[in-house]
Design brief:
Helices cover 48% and strands 15% of the residues. It is an alpha/beta fold and 900 residues long.
Length: 900
């Protein structure tokens, strides 16, 4: 039978919900369930492979055998993106207005470039700082993403076997696989010998899977990944050899479909949402305040152009124009600190997200466990520890020549038995019956010192139990000699005892194998087969565990103390996962497996998800669904994984976390890379994330509340004063100096209490903070007005310079001093001191502010020296301001239970 090859061309087929091509799925299912002749006909090939000409044609049709993966944008795109920020948009609009009214409209001799130059400098510094940091991050990430170039052994018609780059393989190629090879494409196995494939990077399952060439007639009723006569791109050969036929290549493979799903645009994260909400809050305030101040000044003073100039300065004052720079500086500082603690930040925004994270979804293998199978128990048939069972198991594992599985390696770590048993002297290997998937067991036949043959078989519980007619009654001796033990018949009572013991071991999270033996006389022909694996005598159980990491429990406790709930999303079975969770302190109230998850509606999942701590037997898309459901409930979700099966979920999460030993596609999807696969390292990342966020929110609340207070003061002054309370240039310089004073904030520290809970953007909280804390400064601004107006008689346009100088100094000092009041919920300078850089820079700015009216360029700025009698008033006003702010702070914390 011959099928039309073009008809199965993937480009002509639809795409499934999991990103795989329907045409490809059909081809893989047909290849799995049909015999060799059908498959060769379907792919228009033969045992000899395809010709070089055909291979060339198929590359033109299907493309090269490469997967889609993300690349950093070109530098100029990154530079352009650095300017795409809501606050920079505001500044650009203000700059355009400034250009029109300061440069375009006025006569040549009256043009004023000061405002436009200052705004332009702010925009450039902010954008360039962000570009430089992110360009460096992307360059480092590219090194992590580099894919390993490898080759495959292919048989082409009329040619000998040869090695070619895997990118040149096409459907219909015949390839040869051996131990250590990476599977270069999705293949159907045509011949195999003791073939075991590690699929952990696709499924998360630690143990290798046996593959064979036998057709699977109900292949169309199973998931593609469950078909054991198919091999998938990206997996690797652990043991054995095979000849395979390539069915799908490149982006049409299982690997490629997952890769394609994670290289799309990342969804909006908690950081993005928070910064956008905050931006729109500040924009709304501007849209209300600026027109009001413009109209009041216009009507009261009658000079509408001057009112417009003043309104532009007010708009600048209300815009936290240094926010992009402060945020970038904070994030960059956080990234440097985290790198010193084995946490590499690929995407700067992820630092805030990791601090805001309240749920961490993680795989089990390697994160909670050592990723190493160990022999945990060796029990006799009555469930008691028995060294004799271990001796039988050791002889079996030592003498087999097939696959040395992880469990065999765990047994062979008991090297002390080797000399004691004289395993290669007293027991000479006579024959072997290899492991296969149908039997799920393997046997070795050993020649003992008395000449007799001893068959030792180990395998899965159900299969082994059917073949055992007797069981050893455990004796007190610990000898391997059979004649010293009593064998009892395997009746229903004994069978139930064995099954109950096995079930109990499973509930403890152990993988259980049975070990049985059978003795043959010395003259038995050396042609042992599976027919000889019967009437065996059961010796006992061996139980294996991928044990919990010693650091896992304290790490999880530490994360819980930081308000982070840990949920386990794994491809492993629920029994083993439940045991590990119990060992590391993750409470397990309810487990949902992949089949149950598929049966649940979105509403049911949303309702139950907070109560579920373990999701087992999940495929990659089910992991994505769980992460999305958690995000939809308002959680900030971190996902930690290192396999291909984790890649899509890594990208869906607010913060994707991987390790430097992860597969390329997982590292590509992650925002943060840990240099150690340890949750304790992640805990440090969470603390640094919160510290960084704390310093960002300090700036936002300080600036928003201070600027709001200033605008409130200007509103009042504009209504009652016969002149402007401060010239636009004064406002601009004051604002710039205040911003400079806050550049040291990334080097500030946070109170310990702040670090104990997840921190999220909260635009409502910022607005509330502005409304309650901002007007406090206005009270003392009005007091300053009164002092300057009545005491110093600066109450007419002729004396406005003195008035403006007095408010310029008081306004700048109160704004700068408020940094220390707002940065902590404690009493500043008594219970909590800022870091040295913050104290030094704020002190310097306050000194500069006092100096400016006395400086040589004061006259050019339309300021004048202040009388000495002004300064006692200044000290009294500032002390009163600090005292009232502390009282309001205490009330605010008591009323709203929050500060920063």
């Amino acid at each position: 039978m011959k099928l039309n090859f073009k008809a199965t061309h993937p480009f002509h087929s639809a795409i499934t919900s999991n990103g795989m091509n329907i045409g490809t799925i059909t081809k893989l299912q047909n290849a799995s369930k049909q015999n060799e002749n059908f498959i060769y006909a379907m792919l228009e090939t033969s045992e000899e492979g395809i010709s070089e000409v055909t291979a060339y044609d198929r590359i033109q049709t299907f493309g090269t055998n490469e997967i889609q993966h993300q690349k950093a944008p070109a530098w100029y795109r990154q530079l352009l993106k650095s300017f795409l920020n809501p606050f920079i948009y505001i500044l650009i609009i203000i700059a355009i207005v400034s250009f029109i009214i300061d440069i375009w409209l006025p006569a040549k001799e009256e043009r004023d470039f000061k405002t436009l130059i200052v705004i332009s400098i702010m925009i450039l510094i902010s954008a360039l700082l962000r570009f430089i940091q992110e360009f460096r991050s992307n360059s480092a990430a590219d090194k992590l993403k580099s894919m390993v170039k490898t080759t495959a052994t292919v048989k082409r018609k009329f040619l000998e076997k040869k090695e070619i780059p895997i990118s040149e393989l096409v459907p219909g190629d015949v390839i040869h696989l051996s131990a250590g090879d990476m599977i270069p494409a999705d293949c159907r196995i045509m011949q195999s010998k003791d073939l075991f494939i590690s699929e952990s990077m696709l499924t998360g399952e630690a143990l290798p899977v046996e593959k064979n060439h036998l057709p699977i007639r109900d292949a169309d009723k199973k998931q593609i990944i469950e078909l054991n006569n198919l091999c998938f791109m990206g997996t690797n050969v652990v043991s054995g050899s095979a000849t395979a036929l390539i069915v799908a290549t490149g982006k049409y493979t299982y690997f490629g479909s997952i890769s394609k799903s994670i290289t799309t645009e990342r969804p909006e994260t908690a950081f993005d949402k928070g910064i956008n909400k905050l931006s729109f809050l500040l924009i709304r305030f501007m849209l209300v305040m600026v027109p009001v101040i413009f109209l009041i000044n216009g009507f009261v003073k009658g000079d509408w152009l001057e009112a417009l100039l003043f309104s532009v300065a007010v708009a600048i004052g209300l815009t936290p124009e240094m926010l992009p720079m402060i945020v970038t500086a904070n994030l960059a500082k956080g990234a440097v600190n985290m790198s010193k603690h084995k946490v590499i930040v690929k995407r700067l925004d992820a630092i805030q997200n990791i601090g805001a994270m309240d749920i961490l979804c993680t795989d089990k293998t390697g994160t909670l466990t050592l990723d190493k199978i160990v022999l945990e128990k060796h029990l006799n048939v009555l469930g008691a520890e028995d060294d004799e069972v271990l001796k039988w198991a050791y002889l079996n594992s030592f003498h087999q020549t097939g696959l040395k599985s992880l469990m065999d390696k765990a047994i062979l770590e008991h090297i002390e038995l080797h000399d004691y048993l004289k395993a290669d002297e007293q027991y000479m290997k006579a024959d072997e019956i290899p492991f296969d998937f149908q039997r799920r067991r393997m046997s070795v036949i050993l020649k003992m010192h008395n000449g007799k043959h001893l068959l030792i078989c180990k395998g899965a519980v159900e299969e082994m139990l059917e073949l055992c007619s007797h069981a050893f009654d455990p004796g007190e001796d610990r000898s391997v000699h059979i004649e010293n033990d009593v064998a009892v018949k395997m009746d229903d009572t004994m069978r139930n005892t064995v099954l109950n013991t096995s079930k109990k071991m499973n509930e403890e999270g152990l993988r259980v194998l049975l070990v049985a033996i059978r003795e043959f006389d010395p003259f038995h022909p050396l042609t042992y087969s599976i027919e000889d694996e019967k009437n065996m005598t059961l010796t006992g159980f061996i139980g294996f565990l991928d044990p919990a990491k010693p650091s896992a429990q304290p790490s999880i406790e530490a994360l819980h103390k930081l308000g982070v709930t840990v949920k386990v999303l794994t491809g492993d079975n629920e029994i083993v996962t439940q045991k590990i969770c119990k060992d590391v302190g993750i409470p397990v109230h309810h487990i949902i497996n992949g089949h149950e998850l598929d049966a649940m509606s979105e509403e049911e999942l949303t309702e139950q998800i907070d109560q579920v701590s373990v999701f087992a037997k999940l495929n990659p898309l089910q992991k994505v669904r769980v992460v999305q459901a958690l995000r939809d409930k308002g959680h900030t979700v971190g996902f930690m994984g290192d396999g291909i099966n984790d890649a899509a979920a890594l990208k869906q999460a607010d913060v994707g976390i991987s390790v430097d030993t992860a597969v390329d596609i997982a590292k590509e999807s992650a925002d943060i890379i840990l240099l150690e696969k340890d949750l304790m390292v992640l805990r440090k990342g969470v603390i640094y994330g919160r510290r960084t966020f704390g310093n960002i929110i300090k700036y936002i609340k300080m600036t928003a509340s201070s600027n709001f207070g200033n605008m409130f003061s200007m509103l009042g002054a504009s209504a009652f004063l016969p002149f402007l309370p401060m010239l636009p240039v004064h406002l601009l310089i004051q604002n710039l100096l205040y911003d400079v004073s806050q550049i040291s904030i990334p080097w500030d520290k946070m109170d310990e209490e702040f670090l104990t809970e997840p921190k999220k953007w909260d635009a409502v909280d910022v607005r509330r903070f502005m409304l309650f804390i901002g007007p406090i400064s206005s009270i003392f601004d009005f007091i300053t007005y009164a002092v300057m107006y009545y005491f110093f008689k600066a109450n007419s346009p002729e004396h406005q310079t003195l008035f403006q100088s007095g408010w310029f100094v008081e306004g700048l000092l109160s704004q700068t001093l408020i940094i220390h009041m707002i940065r902590t919920r404690k009493i500043p300078f008594i219970q909590s001191w800022a870091s040295t850089p913050v104290v030094a820079l704020t002190s310097l700015i306050m000194a500069i502010g006092i100096f400016i009216p006395f400086s040589p360029f004061a006259a050019g700025l339309k300021l004048q020296p202040l009388p000495l009698s002004y300064f006692p008033w200044l000290v009294g006003i500032l002390l009163s301001y600090c005292l009232l702010t502390q009282l309001v702070k205490n009330w605010f914390i008591k009323r709203f239970t929050t500060w920063l």
